[in-house]
Amino acid sequence: MPNNEHEITLGVLNAVHDDSNITQRSMAGELGIALGLTNSYLKRCIKKGLIKVQQAPANRYAYYLTPQGFSEKSRLAREYLTQGFQFFRIAREQCSDIFKVCSAQGQHRIALHGLTDLAEIAVLCAKDHNVELVCIIDPSSKLDTYSGIPVCSEFSNLEDCDALIVTDLGSPQREFNVLVELYGQDRVFAPAILKVSRDPKPHGKGGDHD
Question: What is the extent of the structural domain holding 13?
Fold first, then answer.
């Protein structure tokens, strides 16, 4: 159950991102908060221009994130994800699960996309599994290496890579979509904590926008 204003706002934005046809009652159930509080936060998001609402058949409403809403969702997600031990514990567990799957599928040479707190946890976690981190992709990084792992800026450096894990915290859905388009669904993974959809919605109803 969300316990502060930012968490509830992020929960509302995530719910709309996941399902534009969600009802307020269903949203309240997902968030574990009262229907009246859900209505209040939804109205607040609409007033701030984070969500737009459209009339749908049968007296229903459809909700969509605006570009501003996507940006705010990403900002709040970054804040939430990087909060201390809870993030570390969850991220380590999910990275470990991905490494287990990769190892079982014979995908031992792995690249990370995004030199972030999540990537640092993945580097620590990889040591416990039968995998090798061949590089970390981050065009914005000024580092040549991190913990002995090359830091690259180009996708072309990944010819001998078996799998890629999204560790970007800014626009994980967008980066996931790009990697899937380049390398295929079976080679690209993302920790569940990033809330990346493996079946992105059409433009305007999903995917990260800056």
Answer: 5-81
